[in-house]
Amino acid sequence: MFNKRTKIKELLAGEPTGQQVTVMGWVRTFRNNQFIALNDGSTLNNLQIVVELGLLDEATLKRITTGAALKITGELIPSLGKGQKMEIKAAVIEVLGDSDSEQYPLQPKKHSLEFLREIAHLRFRTNTFSAIFRIRHALAFAIHRFFNEKGFVYLHTPIITSSDAEGAGEMFQVTTLPLAQLPKSAEGGIDFSQDFFGKSTNLTVSGQLEGELAATALGDIYTFGPTFRAENSNTTRHLAEFWMIEPEMAFYDLQDNMDLAEEFIQYLIRYVMEHNAADLSFLDTRQKEEEKALPQAQRSELGLLDKLQFVLDNRFERITYSEAIEVLLQSPAYKKKKFKYEVKWGIDLQSEHERYLVEKHYKKPVIVTDYPKDIKAFYMRQNDDGKTVAAMDILAPGIGEIVGGSQREERLDKLETRMQEMHVPLKEMQWYLDTRRFGTVPHAGFGLGFERMVLFVTGMSNIRDVIPFARTPKNCEF
Amino acid sequence: MFNKRTKIKELLAGEPTGQQVTVMGWVRTFRNNQFIALNDGSTLNNLQIVVELGLLDEATLKRITTGAALKITGELIPSLGKGQKMEIKAAVIEVLGDSDSEQYPLQPKKHSLEFLREIAHLRFRTNTFSAIFRIRHALAFAIHRFFNEKGFVYLHTPIITSSDAEGAGEMFQVTTLPLAQLPKSAEGGIDFSQDFFGKSTNLTVSGQLEGELAATALGDIYTFGPTFRAENSNTTRHLAEFWMIEPEMAFYDLQDNMDLAEEFIQYLIRYVMEHNAADLSFLDTRQKEEEKALPQAQRSELGLLDKLQFVLDNRFERITYSEAIEVLLQSPAYKKKKFKYEVKWGIDLQSEHERYLVEKHYKKPVIVTDYPKDIKAFYMRQNDDGKTVAAMDILAPGIGEIVGGSQREERLDKLETRMQEMHVPLKEMQWYLDTRRFGTVPHAGFGLGFERMVLFVTGMSNIRDVIPFARTPKNCEF
C-alpha cells in the first residue's frame, strides 16, 4: 500500500500539534534551499515544507524543482513565518518524479490563457485552472444533489440518435461505414442499411424529447450529459461538444418551470460559495488584476464574489418578450441607433439586445417569456393569443442565454398541427406523440448549458477555459 | 402555478390525519368504479383513491382507464381495506389526459421484456422499469456522493477524440463531411483537413488517458460519461453506447486501487439497499417468480437481496492470474473437459473461466491481478518478473468483468519502450508522456461499466433493460 498520505486540504483544516504526517504532491516553488511550497491539487493552498540544513545532500536539493513530485514525512507544526498557519518540518523527503526545469513548460510566473490552452494537459497544475476545475466539480455535484433532494430521477438519454426533430442546427454524423468505399444503394445514394445501426445516425443536440418520455411516467427527471453542435462558430461562448442539464417535470406549467430554474441557479451559486471559498476568492482577485489593464468602462461593475452574492440576493426579473421589445424600443441605445440589428416584434433577440436588457436596463438576471411562436421549437405550448408560446429564456449578465425552456404542448391536436406546419415528420415521431395520446399531462422543462454556468461562476471569459479539453472548429487535441 | 401537488412517496412516508391533499398521477387500475390505484412515478407504491358513489357522472367514470392522468384533491385518511395504510377520499377528480384502453399498449397484465423493449418509450410506466430506473438514478447519485466525500474531482473527458491509443476495439467515426461527395486529398485519400476538426475523429472508448492528465495535478479524479464500442456484439452484456466511471488516483499502487474499488462497489450496494428498499424488494420477488419456470439447476443460488447482502458481508477474493490459471487447471470442470476454450498461462480468461472462478469456486466477487503483459494495454505498470503487469479485474457473479483497472506505468523509459513494442504512436502521445516527464508519480485507476453494475444490483439479465434507450447493432430507436 503506497497511499498512506494525508491530503493538504485536510491538514490545513485541522490543527498543527506536532503530529507526524506524510504528504505527497508537486513542488510549486523552492526558496532559499529551505522552503518548499507543495501542492497536491486537493486545495488551492500550498503547504509549506521546511527543509533543515543538512537533511538533504546537494544532489537531492537540485532535484527539488518546480513540478517535481515529492513524498514528505515530518512533523506538522505551527509556522512562525508569515502567510501560513502551519508547516511541515521534514524528516524524510523522497523525490518521486523529477521535473527538468529547462524543459518544464510551467515556470513560476504568469502564463497567458492562450498559452495554457495549447498545453491543456498541463494547465490543471496552475492555480487558475485547478480552481476552475474544482469549481466545475462542485457545480456538477450540486446539480446532482439539488435534483436528488427533490426526488428527480437522473436519466441518461442517448448520445447517438437517428432523429433530428429538434432541428437545433448542424449535426455530427456517426458512422462505421468505410469512408473510402461507401456502399451505394440501388438508387445511387449511400446504403445506410449497411451502417452499424442500419440507418443514418447523428450525435444528439438535446435529450429533451427522450426526457419527456420518462417524465410522463416517473414524474420529474433530469439529464446531465454531453450534447453537440457542428456549427462553425469560433466564439468565446460556443463549443462543438458541451454538457447540458435538462430537467423535465410532469404537472408543471411555465411559472412552476421558472420558479424551479431560478431556485436551481441560486442553489448552485450558494453551494459553490459555501464549498469553494478559497477557489472563488482566488478567481475574484484574479479578475480584478486582469481588469486593471482595462479602461474603467470595460471593467466589471461588480467583482466576482459581489456578482454572485447579488444574484443570491435578488429575484430574477420576469418580463414577457413583448415587454422586452418595448423596453428596447424605448431605450436610449435604440434611439441613438446603437443596435446593429433591427428591433421589432417578431425578431429573435440578438446578443446586443440581451446584454442591454440584462446589463444596462435591469442589471440582474432576466427571464424573458412568451416568445413569438415562429422563432421557437414545435413542442412549445401555444398561448391563447395564437401568436406566442409558453417559452422562457434566462439571460445572465456577461453570458447571455444561460437557460432555455418552455411548457410543452400537451394537447395532441395542437401539437400535430404545429408539427405539420413546421415540417416535423409525424410518422417518425409517433413515440413522442404517444405521451400525448395516453394520459397526457401539462409538463415543462428547461436546458442549462453547463459550461456557461461554469463561466458565470468562475468569472472566466472564454468557454474553452472552463472545460478540460475543448472541441471547437479545427481543434480536437488530447 | 399548476404544480401544487404532493408526491405519493412523501404521503406514504407520513401519517394520514384527514389532511387535504392534492395528488397527480396515472391510473394503474380502477376497480368496481370505486378504487383507483394511482401512481406518480415517485415510488413503486400506488396510492388508493376512493371514489364515492355519486361523485362522478357516468361519462367521467368511463374516462378513468389504465394510463389516464388524473388530478385528485381530497382527504388523506387511514384505509380500512387491506394492503394499504392510507387512502384519499376524493373530493374533486379532474381528468388531465385520457387513455383509450383499446389503443393503450400497456394493459394491466404481464408483458414480456421483449415486448416492452419495443415500446421503450412507454416502459417507464411499468413497475419493473420504474424500479430499475429509480435504482439506476440512486446508483448514479451514490457514485457522485462517494467520490465527492473523498475529495475526488469529477472530470468531463472528451467524447469526440482524434486518438485511438487505447486500441480498445472498433470505433465510431464522427464527421461533418458530405458523405455523398467526400473531398479527396492530392494523394487520393479522403481530405480530412476539410472536416470539422481538420482531421479524422472518433467517439471515445475511454477517458482514462485524459483522466491521468488531471489526476497528476488534482490528485484524485473520476469520470462518469458515455463511451462507445462499434463492435458487432449482439449479446445480453454488450451495448454500443454505455456509461462508464473511471477514477484515476495519483499516489496509488495496485493494492490501493483494489481497496478503493472494493469499498466503492460495497458503498453503492449499501446505498441502494438503504434508499431503494421497495424497488429492490419488488425486483427480488420478480426474479423469484421468473425463476419458478426454470429447472432448479438454472435458478439463482441466492435471491437478489441475499446476493447483495452477501457481497456486503464478504471481502472480495484476491488472486493472481497465475493462481487463477492453477485453480482452473485443477478444477473438475477442466478435468472433465467442460471448458470450450483452452486453459494455459497466457490466455485471456474467457467468460466460462471467469464464471467458474466466481460462481463455482470462490462463490463471491473475485479480483484477479497481475495478468500477462501481452494481453493487457500498454499503459499498465510492468511487474519485476518481466512477464506480468499490475492489472486487476473484478469479476462478479452472473455478470463477469465489472471492473478493469491497473497501476499505470509511471516510468518514462519503460513506458516508451512498451509503446514502441506495441506500436502505439509516440509522437502523437507526447502530451500523455509529459505526465511521466514532469513530476511523474505512482498512480492507478479503474473503469466500472455502469450498466453492468445496474444489472448486478437489479438482478436483470439483459443489459438492454437497464439503460433507457439501448444502442446495439441495427438498433437506434427513439
CATH architecture of the largest domain in chain A: 2-Layer Sandwich
Helix proportion range of chain A: 25-40%
Low-confidence stretches of chain A: none
| Structural domain count of chain A | 2
Describe the main β-sheet of chain A briefly.
8 strands, mixed
CATH hierarchy class name of the largest domain in chain A: Alpha Beta
β-strand number of chain A? 16
Number of helices of chain A: 14
Question: pLDDT average of chain A, as an integer?
Answer: 95
The percent range for strand residues of chain A is: 15-25%
CATH superfamily of the largest domain in chain A: Bira Bifunctional Protein, Domain 2
Described by its quaternary structure, the protein is homodimer
What string gives the helices and strands of chain A in order?
HEEEHEEHHEEEEHEEHHHEHHHEEEHHEH
Shape of chain A: globular
Distance between the termini of chain A: 31 Å
Using the CA coordinates, give the radius of gyration of chain A. 27 Å
CATH overall fold name of the largest domain in chain A: BirA Bifunctional Protein, domain 2
The neighbouring-strand order within the major sheet of chain A is 6-10-11-16-15-14-13-12
- Summarize the largest interface: chains and residue counts: A-B, 113 and 113 residues
Helix and strand composition category of chain A: alpha+beta
Keywords (chains A, B): Aminoacyl-tRNA synthetase, ATP-binding, Cytoplasm, Ligase, Nucleotide-binding, Protein biosynthesis
Subcellular location (chains A, B): Cytoplasm
Protein name (chains A, B): Asparagine--tRNA ligase
EC number (chains A, B): 6.1.1.22
